[in-house]
Amino acid sequence: MTKTVLRIDASARKTGSVTRDLTDKVISKLGADTVVTRDLTHGVFLLDEAWLAANWTTAGERTDEQKATLAVSDALIAEVKAADTLVIGAPIYNFGIPGALKGWIDQIARAGVTFRYTDEGPKGLLEDKRAIIVTASGGTKVGSDFDFATGYLKFALGFIGITDVQIVAADQMALDADASLKAANEQVEALAA
Question: Is the pTM of the predicted complex or chain greater than 0.90?
Answer without folding.
Answer: yes
